[in-house]
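# step 3/5: fold
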Amino acid sequence: MFLQIKKYFNKMKSLKKSPKPKSISEILWSGLGAFLSIIAVFIFTKYLATSPMDNFFLIGSFGASAVLIYGAPQLDYSQPRNFIGGHIISTLVGVLIYKFLSFDLMILSALAVSLSIVAMHLTSTMHPPGGATALISIIGSDQIHDLGFYLILSPILSGSVLMLCIALLINNLSNNPKRFYPKYWI
């Protein structure tokens, strides 16, 4: 028994040292891309006539995406298939759960996040901010709920495509041959 416990806790030891910080150039390109994307998404969502809290949630979800597509553009989670697909699938899961299940908000929220993870795994579109997007479909205002399946098209798909376009422009401006985007499309 003691050996099993020791083995369990040994799994928590680190095998490597933390990576060194990125170059100043990488950091600045990441910051510029995130800045432009969030401003663009904010302007876009401002005209959807949803509540300020909904915009706050949407920007939060897209903010997490910005960290990935600008701060770590080579990760699988950051690729267009995962970025766009993860948000769309997660929104679809959230809208379906909200429309067709009538449980407590806590249960609906937990189902939306967990089933969006399952759906992203099954479709190979894992994008961690998708969990937040699924949650927005549940905890959003009546205006978000009234959008129903239209939420997938606007603001989720349209906001994601807007961010993707900016990511393509910004991530490929660098002269660093290791900084390019995307690594793959499909």
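# step 4/5: annotate
DSSP finds eight helices and no strands in the chain.
# step 5/5: archive (pending)
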